[in-house]
Specification:
The structure holds 2 protein chains of 2 kinds.
Chain A: H1 4-12, H2 22-31, E1 33-37, E2 42-44, E3 53-58, E4 61-65, E5 68-73, E6 78-79, H3 81-86, E7 93-96, E8 100-105, H4 107-116, H5 118-139
Antiparallel strand pairs in A: 1-8, 2-7, 3-6, 3-8, 4-5, 4-7
Helix pairs in contact in A: 1-2
Chain B: H1 2-6, E1 13-19, H2 23-35, E2 40-42, H3 110-123, E3 134-140, E4 143-148, E5 151-160, E6 166-167, E7 194-198, H4 202-211, E8 217-222, H5 229-232, H6 244-250, E9 255-267, E10 272-278, E11 284-289, E12 291-294, E13 298-299, H7 305-308, E14 312-313, E15 318-319, E16 333-335, H8 358-377, H9 391-401, H10 403-407, E17 412-419, E18 423-431, H11 432-437, E19 443-450, E20 456-464, E21 467-472, H12 484-494
Parallel strand pairs in B: 1-2, 1-5, 5-16, 7-8, 7-12, 8-9
Antiparallel strand pairs in B: 3-4, 4-5, 6-13, 9-10, 10-11, 14-15, 17-18, 17-19, 19-20, 20-21
Helix pairs in contact in B: 2-8
The chains are: A alpha+beta, B alpha/beta.
């Protein structure tokens, strides 16, 4: 059992939302929806359109391409934004490895959300930059 | 009345016990009965109808029924134009809602809806033990024990259709001392008063709309900006019927929509003082009002199910469910009615199912009854053969007018299997999430979906060699998917499936 205050506290503890004041965190808590997934359940499906943006609050998920696990995501990690930003279906499955608790934002709302919260957008950009740097390291 | 006086289903052992006598409980009981699953139904209420025995507060529904539609009321395809009737196999019991409406609105009045549900229960002989309140649940061996005010029921399976009509408030300081939406007094009691409504969803806007002729000022406040269904191009957001307060707000007509977190509510000599903080500027905002109403939503009366092991989410309001609406943590505990919205499905482009309303939940209940019959009672579903030259016509007809697909877009789908021995079979209506994620033979599923821009079109999911691929099909201005273009497109997508060719 949680309440809205708990969701606000959770958001405050995630890097993505670290720059937001409490009233903004409360607005975000009322904008994002909570979703639960069981172990083995697919959240993003490779090649399926119309996906959403997810932030992991609890649990772990695998990024799986053609049945092969490529990465593990955990608390504070987010996924789904790439296909929304590019308007393309995801190129990987994201599968819950055990019970997974996420916050969800519908794809069509992501642009307005990021424009309304530029500090969140900046944090997301930093995370993407880190992912890009790490990908380049692996290649070199 | 003699049957009622005798009260069916005395405490004892039953294969299945259904709890609830709202639309969800009635529909699942009707469907279990028709498919041959013996069960008992108990309800705390004295009569059928569930939440519609009381709500909506202003006595008119948000879901419509068109008495005059392109199809006869007894036709299955009429269901698309009727959001309020329960489903029946017998033509004479179909489309009952329209028969109770007086023609003054396409939105039935609450008493009309209540009579519609009571008539369904009576005419289809759905028996319920009324006045029997579920009080506790425990497990004994392979049985669940349901404690009630009438005694104990034992069953291998439980189906809870107890609605989402339990008033819910967040833990905001002082909010406990103001009435909830469910406790709103008659509109005339607010004459000349300043009314502060906590919440900017449909229940808040319903109150504002109903109080427009009475209140001297109305403020609606919550952290999140109001969403409008006409903007989201779905049923997400404030429905068109309640938009008058929104228009009044944007033209400065004495209604105020405030995006603010409510910090505390204090009693004053003349009413209330509300302390809030703007979510845009973080500035403190103060409001004086003679009346405050919490339009903060509803929860599910899940009783002690969490203690039984039922995992919940969304602040404990909903159970976590499988695609067939079974608790993921306590097998054998199922949910029907509005609670079935807890299984969100694929939620493409953020558009949820209509499982939170009668027009969606009624189909879930039928799918659930067939699932229970098959999995727990070995009752095989009908799987009528489909002639190879009928495949395209059948799928496109369903995509154009199948009520399950239109009311439960991206959520329920018509499934055809293409087996080497059994040939092509109509497998009926399935949860789409189950079709795309569960293993199975060569098959396809058709549903109706929204695009990101809000257009509606058929979507086809094809499973070949264990892998499911999604294919978005062309749309059509008149939503007619039986065109030559659609036939050609579908033939191409299905070509070779189980050896099938157009």
């Amino acid at each position: 059992m949680t309440d809205a205050d708990e969701t606000v506290d959770i958001l405050a503890g995630l890097t993505l939302f670290a720059d937001l004041a409490r009233p903004q965190l409360e607005a975000v808590a009322h904008t994002l929806e909570e979703e639960w997934f069981t172990g083995g359940q697919r959240i993003l499906r490779q090649g399926f359109s119309g996906t959403g943006f997810y932030v992991i609050v609890e649990g772990e998920a695998a990024v799986r391409v053609d049945g092969e696990d490529r990465a593990t995501l955990s608390r504070g990690d987010f996924f789904g934004e790439v296909s929304i930003l590019l308007g393309e279906p995801p190129i990987a499955d994201v599968v819950a490895l055990r019970p997974l608790r996420c916050l969800f934002l519908a794809g069509p709302e992501v642009e307005r959300f990021l424009l309304a919260h530029p500090r969140v957008m900046y944090r997301m950009l930093q995370a993407q930059a880190r992912r890009l740097r790490n990908a380049n390291r692996w290649r070199s | 009345m003699a049957e009622l006086a005798e009260r069916p289903f005395p405490p004892g052992d039953y294969p299945v016990v259904v709890v609830g006598s709202g639309p969800g409980g009635l529909q699942v009981s009707y469907c279990l009965g028709r498919v041959g699953v013996p069960h008992a139904v108990v309800s705390a209420d004295p009569a059928p109808g569930g939440m519609f025995r009381r709500f909506p507060i202003f006595q008119r529904l948000l879901s419509w029924t068109r008495p005059h539609a392109p199809y006869e009321r007894t036709d299955r395809y009429y269901e698309r134009y009727d959001w309020n009737s329960l489903l029946a196999e017998e033509p004479e019991h179909r489309g009952l809602a329209a028969t109770f409406m007086d023609g003054s609105s396409e939105f039935p009045a609450r008493p009309e809806m209540e009579r519609n549900l009571a008539a369904f229960a009576e005419r289809t002989r759905v028996a319920v033990r009324y006045g029997c309140r579920w009080t506790a649940t425990r497990r004994e061996g392979d049985r669940f024990v349901l404690e009630t005010t009438d005694g104990e029921y034992r069953a291998r399976l439980l189906v809870f259709a107890v609605g989402m009509a339990e008033p819910w408030k967040p833990a905001t300081l002082g909010l406990d001392q103001v009435p909830h939406y469910a406790e709103t007094r008659s509109a005339a009691d607010y004459a000349g008063r300043r009314v502060f409504i906590v919440g900017k969803r449909n229940s808040g806007f319903e109150l504002a709309e109903g109080l427009l002729p009475w209140a001297s000022q109305i403020v609606l406040a919550s952290p999140r900006p109001a969403k409008l269904s006409v903007v989201t191009r779905s049923l997400v957001g404030i429905r068109a019927r309640y938009l008058q307060p929104y228009e009044d707000a944007v033209i400065g007509g004495g209604i105020h929509l405030i995006d603010a977190s409510i910090e505390r509510i204090e009693r004053t000599a003349g009413g209330y003082r509300v302390v809030a903080r703007s979510t845009m500027t973080s500035r403190e905002l103060l409001f004086q009002a003679e009346a405050v109403i919490a339009a903060t939503g509803f929860g599910t009366p899940l009783g002690d199910l969490a203690a039984l092991g039922v995992q919940t989410f969304n602040q404990g309001k909903l159970p976590v469910l499988t695609p067939y609406w079974e608790s993921v943590t306590v097998p054998g505990v199922y949910f029907a009615g509005t609670i079935s919205q807890a299984m969100s499905g694929l939620k493409k482009h953020g558009v949820p199912s209509n499982s939170g309303a009668v027009q969606g939940a009624r189909y879930n209940a039928r799918v659930l009854a067939l699932h229970i019959a098959q999995v727990h009672f070995g009752i095989a579903p009908e799987r009528p053969p489909v002639a190879p030259d009928r495949v395209l016509g059948h799928l496109l007809s369903e995509a154009t007018r199948g009520p399950e697909l239109w009311h439960q877009r991206s959520y329920l789908a018509r499934v055809l299997s293409f087996g080497p021995a059994a040939g092509i079979r109509d497998e009926g209506i399935w949860p789409l999430a189950h079709f795309v994620d569960a293993p199975g033979p060569e098959a396809c599923a058709v549903t109706v979906e929204h695009t990101a821009e809000g257009e509606m079109r058929p979507a086809l999911y094809v499973r070949r060699e264990g892998r499911v691929e999604e294919h978005a099909m062309a749309t059509n201005e008149l939503l007619d998917f039986e065109t030559a273009e659609h036939r050609a497109e579908l033939a191409g997508l299905l070509d070779g499936l189980g050896g099938w060719h157009a």
